[in-house]
Amino acid sequence: MSSHLEVFTPAGRELVPLAGQRVTLGKASGNAIALEHDATVSRLHAVFENLGAAWSIRDMGSRNGTYLNGEKITAERVLHSGDEVRVGKSRLIFWMVRESADGGRDEETVSAQPVEGPPRLTRREYDVLVVLCRPLVSDDPFPEPASVRAMAGELYVTEAAVKQHLQNLYDKFGIPAEGDRRVRLANEALRRGAVTLAQLRDSTT
Length: 205
What we know:
Layout: E1 2-9, E2 12-17, E3 22-26, E4 33-34, E5 46-50, E6 55-59, E7 66-68, E8 71-72, E9 77-78, E10 84-87, E11 90-97, H1 107-112, H2 123-133, H3 148-155, H4 159-173, H5 181-191, H6 197-203
Parallel strand pairs: 3-4
Antiparallel strand pairs: 1-2, 1-11, 3-5, 5-6, 6-9, 7-8, 7-10, 10-11
Protein name: Glycogen accumulation regulator GarA
Keywords: Phosphoprotein
GO molecular function: DNA binding
């Protein structure tokens, strides 16, 4: 199993494989992940640690903090595939990729395909996912998934009904209970192909 970061920069998306014991992230050019374009990132902002079967992230006393799935971290946190990391104005997504049976390790090719297909969804669950993920195709450089209130208003249902559908989706996609679960669900739904960016764009017209 290999891991990499999907780094979003003004120049576009970059895939950075994680290797070795430590991978540093910061504004200084000497970091393995150098975000020199982002003045809100500290010179040494955060570090990724190889735990063997997993990776963790730790803030290095940065000025503006490190956020994992929308939550500011104060201690080392183990990463799960699809986790969103924000440092300063920069956004990164952590992915774990299973090795193919023939040992192939083409990161970009493997990561561009869903690791596993999406679970079976009801029509209403699909509608909730589309509304949840639609802000991701907006012009906002750091989009947030739709709120429960916004989803309820658009789907003409109660917030309690939306929360129940979201809980079913968390269970079906295996979203852990900690952190911002809506962010993780949106990332996982896109990764596994439950919804596509093209479908989201079509739904806005």
